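User: Hi! I'm a student and our assignment asks us to look at how structure tokens line up with a sequence. Could you show me two examples?

Assistant: Happy to help. In each example below, the sequence comes first and the structure tokens follow. Example one:
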Amino acid sequence: MLSMPSSERQPNPWPLPPKRHRPWKWVAVGGGVFIVGYWLVAYLLMPVVWMRYTRHHPALRDVPNITHTVDGIPADPLNVALVGTEAELNRVLLAAQWYPADPLTLRSRLEIASAAVFEHPYDDAPVSNLYLWGRKEDLAFEQPVGNDPRQRHHVRFWHSDTLDQDSRPLWVGAAIFDERVGLSHTTGQITHHTAANIDIERGKLFSDLQHTGALSEVYFVNGFHHIRQGRNGGGDPWFTDGRLEVGVIRRR
């Protein structure tokens, strides 16, 4: 049987399909990327995140989120915290023009009453004592508003027993704005009535602190407050977004 010359052969009416990429190759590539990504996140990124978390939160597990009056009535919520020594905390607050409050004595009570009546400034007026861990505040600072002693910014701090990795304590505090003087809704005593939005005062304090350049880091602890509204010891309402703002004081 004779065969046709190659030049005269007819083209194959059913050509072979073009070669396709093997899908298993893409599966292998995708699996490799996933494994590498997982390893980077699980073994490099997350350990760093958790190391920073434990460093930043040396005592927050055991920190209550609200203070109490001497009679055990719930008072001002905690909304700020600083990491540093007592000397560093005093230094940064003074640099931010927040002044140490006078001790609450008969003399200081008379002086603040005189300031309120005659409308002259009292930059270091006392604050009433509030309690955390069964003890009153360790430090208190305030910043007057003009010459009106009836309005002021103030913050109380309590020293935490737990230290961070640099052996510096965490100080937790309540930053509150006094907007007027009046009678307490709970006791009828003369007192300062406070602004309800405690987040504004939290922001005011940290704005002043950051302007000093003395903070190396600032961050929020979300969900610190599960109950986000209430009334303080004087019966004044308060509300918050539930976050605690924390600042780390720069070491010299």
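Example two works the same way, sequence first and then tokens:
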Amino acid sequence: MIVSTDSHVIEPPDLWITRLPRSLHDRAPHLVADADADWWYVDGLKLMSVHGGADVGVRFEDQAKLRMAARMSEVRRGGYEPDSKLADMNADGVDREVVYTTLGLQLWRLPDTALLQSLFAAYNDWIASFCAAAPHRLAGVALVLLDDIDAGIAELQRAARLGLRGAMISVYPDESIAYDHPRYEPIWAAAADLNVVLSLHIGTNRVLPSPPSSTSHAPSDMALKFLSTPARYVTAAHWVQLSLANMIFAGVFERHPTLKVVSLEHEIAWVPHFLQSMDYTYTQRARRSQWYRFQDEARPSDFFHRNVMISFQEDALGLRLRDVVGVGNLVWGSDYPHAESTFPHSRMILDRLFAEIPAEERTQILDTNATALYFS
């Protein structure tokens, strides 16, 4: 059994228009056929093209052919049709997928809270219907905004009723209200009570810029700010480290021992140093009066090993350090159907990555850890 804990859909062009009130149609995500490609426009901003679903597998043929713009007609049908997705999973040797958004990764930069709440709710309705086509193989992940905690809890509860098995929150919120802030305590409690896994996915920083002109269709560098250069990709784990450390040092996991949080598309190899640094800081540096102290001589790494999961794709170095990270903390993801995905060679790539890893550990990382999180 192979479970991908990080796969994606490519949202169909009519997803939001058919699920939002007419008053929001002008502001809702819609595809525009520009001269070079089809682009998503949202509330006057040109956010991204649909290339994320058009070039899957191309990197194995010729990396120079990868593009940043494409037409919807070029997108692989498995990105937006459940039956086609299942067929591609079969061809790739993947038995189950945990399914994430694509355009939704960019929507976190929209400044209007009310609009974003509506967009997320509409997406959640659609992805629940999408995954209901094969609930034993597809687990949907909701989009949950935490600008308003009460509204976020309500949407988290609604998503659980829809059958969604995870919820993506911003990988890093506004600096003034980072995840060590007491305002989040009710959402941690709600997620733990609902047994909903919280996801911290690359590129979902919550940034609140000044609202753009309602008539402007100029390309916005705001939307791609955090992944616009090679340096930003290489250092993207910075944000998830801040969020995880804030949660751990604030005692979130001590108060909510069943809460699970998963890091996605940040790979693994940073984790051993991160754990070492947290424990060193907690035990060796001068204690500030405001620093939280754990009970029973627990250390930060103890809560990481109990409550945090790390999804990776092709991190051979990280796998060699799995004894420090924790075999029970690791899960795998194919990133289908994005251009950097392992599709259509996932089984071959996994066989190479796990060539020297004991079979029982391979089974735990590729199957049982993920199955316990999302399909049990």
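Here is something you could point out in your write-up. The chain has one domain: 3-374.
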